[in-house]
Amino acid sequence: MKNLRLKSARAALDMSQQQLADAVGVSRQTINAIEKGDYNPTIKLCLAICKTLHRTLDELFWEE
Amino acid sequence: MNHSLGYNLGMLAGVLVGVLVGVGIIALLFKLKVMDLTFDERQERARGQAYKYGFWTLVACLLLYGFSDMVLGRWCDVITGAMLCIAAALMVFASVCIVKDAYLSLKEKPRAIMTLLTVVSALNLGIGFMNWKHGRVVEDGILTFSAVNGICGLVTLVILVVYVVNCLLAKQEAGE
């Protein structure tokens, strides 16, 4: 399932996939795979993304 | 082909010195941070899967090589046969890594890798062609160690082609 919340949170901060990737120490393809729903990140990476985008885990990764 | 003990010892010493120099250069490149093989968690996982495919390819090829030797008789030098099996496994490993976007580490630049693959491929294919032209590749109907340059050249060429095709497909996908 696509993670549109991550994509919109990133866009809200006017960040590119590459900028987010550099900030959390992964490749651009990994961010792309998470947004497309092709890869489930570890909790460590989820937390790094949340801290960078100033969001909570629930806001970005919790599925109702 | 039987060689004297001195020849064999010389060959062994040459190989050992070559390996030592190679390891030394690679260690120096790591120390100077020229080479940095840091992968992220998705890449590590993808590379693990690629290693698995590469490993089973190696096993299958070794079995096939052993079986062919048993049935057909000796058709290549043992070291050349081993190199053929390793080449097949490497191609599978690299191709899976490339398709899963896990071939390059976080610090490596695509252009540098493509240049390196092109140079290595051209050099090895060139030497392989010269060996073939001088009739050293097949002697008495047996594929000799001189074929290894051609094999290495072919492996790097295949990896380069897979890499370029994957890049073009990714660009096309991004443009859509």
Helix and strand topology:
The complex is a heterodimer of chains A (64) and B (176).
Chain A: H1 4-12, H2 17-24, H3 28-36, H4 43-53, H5 57-61
Helix pairs in contact in A: 2-3
Chain B: H1 5-31, H2 41-72, H3 78-99, H4 110-133, E1 138-139, E2 142-143, H5 148-175
Antiparallel strand pairs in B: 1-2
Helix pairs in contact in B: 2-3, 3-5, 4-5
Annotated CATH architecture of chain A: Orthogonal Bundle
Got a strand count of chain B? Answer: 2
- The total count of helices of chain A amounts to 5
Please state the overall shape of chain A, judged from the principal axes of the Cα atoms: globular
Taken from the alpha-carbon principal axes, the silhouette of chain B is: globular
- Number of structural domains of chain B: 2
Radius of gyration of chain A: 10 Å
CATH fold category name of chain A: 434 Repressor (Amino-terminal Domain)
Mean pLDDT of chain B: 92
Task: Give me the strand/helix succession of chain B.
Answer: HHHHEEH
Summarize the main sheet of chain B.
Answer: 2 strands, antiparallel
CATH class of chain A: Mainly Alpha
Helical content of chain A stands at 55-70%
Oligomer: heterodimer
- The radius of gyration of chain B is 19 Å
Helices of chain B, by number, come to 5
Describe this structure in words.
The complex is a heterodimer of chains A (64) and B (176). Chain A is mostly helical. Chain A has one domain (4-61): lambda repressor-like DNA-binding domains (434 Repressor (Amino-terminal Domain), Orthogonal Bundle), CATH 1.10.260.40. Helices cover 66% and strands 0% of the residues of chain A. In chain B, helix 2 (41-72) runs antiparallel to helix 3, helix 3 (78-99) runs parallel beside helix 5 (148-175) and helix 4 (110-133) packs antiparallel against helix 5 (148-175). The radius of gyration of chain B is 19 Å and the shape is globular. Chain B has five helices and two strands, in the order H-H-H-H-E-E-H. With 176 residues, chain B is mainly α. Classes of the chains: A mainly alpha (64), B mainly alpha (176).
